[in-house]
Amino acid sequence: MAGPMGGGKKHGPMGPVKKPKNTKGTVIRLFKYICRQKGLFFGMLFFAAIQSLATVSAALFIEPIIDDYLRPLVGQRFEGELVSGLIRTMVLMGCVFLGGALASYGQSKCSVWLTQRTLNTLRKDLFDSISDLPISYFDSKPNGEIMSRFTNDVESLRMFISQGLTQFVSSGIMIVGSFVIMLMYSWQMTLIVIAMVIVMFFVTKTVGKRSALFFKKQQEQLGTVNGYIEEIIEGQKVVKVFNHEEDVISHFDEINESLRKAATSANTFANILGPVMNNLSHITYALSATVGGLLALKGAMTPGEIVAFLQYIRSFTQPISNITQQFNNAFMALAGAERIFEIIDENKEVDEGYVVLVNAKISDNGEIEETEEHTGVWAWKHTHGDGTVTYTRLAGDIEFENVTFSYDGKKTVLNDVSLYAKPGQKIAFVGSTGAGKTTITNLINRFYEINDGKIRYDGINIQKIKKSDLRRSLGIVLQDTHLFTGTIEDNIRYGNLDATHEDVVKAAKIANAHSFIENLPDGYDTMLTGDGSNLSQGQRQLLSIARAAVADPPVLILDEATSSIDTRTEKLIEKGMDALMQGRTVFVIAHRLSTVRNAQAIMVLEHGEIIERGDHDDLINQKGKYYQLYTGNFEE
Question: What residues pair up with 92 in beta bridges, in sequence order?
Fold first, then answer.
């Protein structure tokens, strides 16, 4: 079966930047992901607490070192009990610092493992969500913007979890510990520190609010730039053919400038916080030193207490400064997390089907029986409400009954279309661009849901059939081929992962791809990269046809399957295509009207309606739209 399709989508300027819709909800949800690794999370918290407490408690040794040992030793010989006590105290302080260093190492290891495992889970959920989204979602989103969720947004989360989260935890412990000890030393000096912290808080709140807004805009503009770059790289040949290099550069300059402005604004406000907070902490330090000196003159504090208090000011204000700087990462991470959760929360492709496809065999009395073995016979297993089960042999009978469809709910693409295709028939659709030809095939495999009417497959409403089983029964060859990184054999086997090497070769022979594959240096083991860029367009299309052939489907959809193949190659595969179509229901969309002459029924569509139907001779005799297209050599 044909593989998934890709391709960049054109997108316009970004709309108005919105503030985060639910910051609190995003934080809670992000922490739920983090807490899935409970051992690592609490281990990180434990080591962070030990490291912070060690830093805080180490400063407690400063007062006794100065007041109990150094001051009494002034003018004395450096010996005796005081020296021994000084050495013991300093060794004990060194042990505390060593314990803090070991805890810091443990915190770092836990942080790294926690970060990578959390991001691994988040990327998996994001990828799973994208895989479950309907085709309509990708019609409206540029690929680069979706890719930016995996790159830029996940990276912003990595920075926050690995750096910001541990900084918040350790800084919080240091702030609380330092504050309690400062109160024990001097409540007067502590009031000065509190007053300056209040100033810091208002500065952070004012600047941070603006910073968060621009970080959100920066992430959105980054997605726009990435989407445009991917689109232009994929369409580089078209750009050069029409000499649009200057226009492309000009448009890129515009969106790149928008990104520069958003990033400049975001980082300008973010970078203001660091210097402002550092200067405020210096002012706090100077005021506290002055007040401490005055208290020492009155005998209310000792020199050791003043030095220790000043040390605790740094232990108190520095974490606050660090936290404010980490707000940059936090704002960017929340903006990224919100964008990731937006995709995860997108409405998934709904599948309420309960009719499944099973291997079957025909018993001696002619009844259909389910079997685990692959017999080449398939049946629809229909479990009814009363618990009974019926089987319908998969034959490829397709019927449209008064089908009406619109992509956007406004413009009708198909209007009251009715048609049928009996098993083994070849049905062709022709008509002008936008007439609804491809839409019909998209509805058969339920890429989109119809607005009105019914589509039946072997007499079963396809809305009752499980989508994966429905699509498994269809072979699709699209105009725009897509090959994956891997060998040629891997790409053909993509249509049926259970296919043996012999099955792959057989399918390649049906598509007349075997000859050119054998002539390649590595044959079926030839590696393909860059969407098969080392092959010609015709060769890539032949592999796409072989991929459909290996699936051995009862219904085959050919959407301009030979449009990228030259006339000589087309003639080579006609025989193989006829063999592939033998006994199958085939829907063909063709611009080359010569390719549909042998169709049992040709449907001529115009503005979403079937205006003519019949075989080639009938339509020629009618001398209507088909006659005009055919005799006028008009090819769309």
Answer: none
The encoded tokens of residue 582 equal 């033998």
Domain boundary residue, one of 278, 310, 344: 344
- DSSP SS3 for 593: helix
Do 153 and 88 have their domain in common?
Answer: yes
Residues 243 and 372 in one domain: no
Tokens at 245, concatenated: 């290099």
- Backbone angle region of 486, left / alpha / beta, with phi > 0 → left and psi within -120 to 50 → alpha: left
CB count in 10 Å sphere of residue 187: 10
Q: 261 with 134, same domain?
A: yes
Do 175 and 153 lie in a common domain?
A: yes
Reduced to 3 states (helix: H, G, I; strand: E, B; else coil), residue 426 is: strand
pLDDT along the chain (636 residues), means of 10: 35 36 82 88 88 80 73 62 77 85 89 90 89 82 79 85 81 84 82 82 74 75 80 72 78 88 79 74 78 78 79 77 73 85 87 89 86 85 89 90 88 90 86 81 88 93 91 82 87 88 90 88 88 80 86 82 63 64 79 75 88 88 84 53
Q: For residues 141 and 74, what is the distance between their CA atoms, to the nearest angstrom?
A: 76
Residue 418 lies in a domain: no
Is residue 505 located within the same domain as residue 616? Answer: yes
Chain centre distance of CA 217: 19
In a domain, 411, yes or no: no
Does one domain contain both 287 and 363? no
What three-state secondary structure class fits 405? strand
Is residue 314 located within the same domain as residue 220? yes
Q: Which residue is associated with the tokens 């603006």?
A: 210
Cβ atoms of 474 and 363 within 8 Å: the answer is no
Burial of 363 (0-12, 13-18, 19+ CB in 10 A): exposed
Unique residue bearing structure tokens 């006829």: 578
Mark out the alpha helices in 300-377 (DSSP H runs).
Answer: 303-344
Instruction: Examine the fold and report which residue of 310, 344, 378 is the final residue of a domain before the chain moves on.
Output: 344
147 and 263 part of one domain: yes
- Number of structural domains, the chain? 3
> What pTM was computed for the model?
0.69
Helix (H) or strand (E) holding 43: helix 38-58
* Chain position carrying tokens 């970078």: 271
